[in-house]
Amino acid sequence: MTAHSSSSGDPYAHLRGYAAVQKQATVERLKEAITLLEIEGRPVNTFTIKEVSGLDYMAYYRNREAFQLFQEHSTHLRRKREQEQANRQATSRSSKKRKQGKGREALHAVTVSPRDPLLDYKRPRLVQLLHEARAERDEARQQLQAVQVSIEQRVQAERSNTEHHAQTERAELEQRYRKLLQDHMQCGVTIAKLEAEVSEYLAFMERFRAALHQEEHGTSS
Question: How far is 198 from 220, CA to CA, in rounded Å?
Fold first, then answer.
């Protein structure tokens, strides 16, 4: 059966492949839109991207690679990063001035303990990652439900076909049995007729022999 053969491999491979193609297509459309906006010297934001490409924000918000590309080229986020970097550099310069001459060797000897990279994200970014993970989870659930429905429909269709085929074969066998039974009965009737004819023929021959014998004896006397 088809469902059994597909279960021997990955039953969701075609869905994963289709999702990967769709995600890559979104990334390519977003790249083209960003490139066009940057060439024209226009700001890169959700409104201008939708204007030149028709891509809705949620289309690349649920796509990790596309959303990262948007964050890298977003005019607002880029200015915000530049401002934060400038603030950090200013803070670093002032901190260096305060710590000048206070034990550089001890500073180099400090061992940095492993740090979870998620701790480097600010709360808005963590919220975005959480929403993205939830969106991917919901999408995976929807795909799984669609696959389950498809499998159930396929099994139901195959079951119906099997039952119909079995009923058809049963009807054909019953028809053949009735025909064979009718032929057998007809053969019985024919045999009975033949036996009656044979009996009648034998009786006739017996009478004929008796008459012939009687005639022979009567002539001789």
Answer: 33
**The pTM of the whole model exceeds 0.90:** no
Euclidean distance between CA atoms 156 and 128, whole angstroms:
42
- Asked if 63 and 27 count as a contact pair (C-beta separation under 8 A), the reply is yes
Six token digits for residue 218: 């009567």
- How far apart CA 149 and CA 157 sit, in angstroms, is 12
DSSP state of 1: -
Backbone angles phi, psi at 45, to 5 degrees: -150, 180
> At 141, which amino acid appears?
R
Q: How do residues 193-209 score in pLDDT, each as one tens digit?
A: 888 888 888 988 888 88
Q: Give pLDDT tens digits for 135-169.
A: 888 888 888 888 888 898 988 888 888 888 889 88
CB 74 within 8 A of CB 139: no
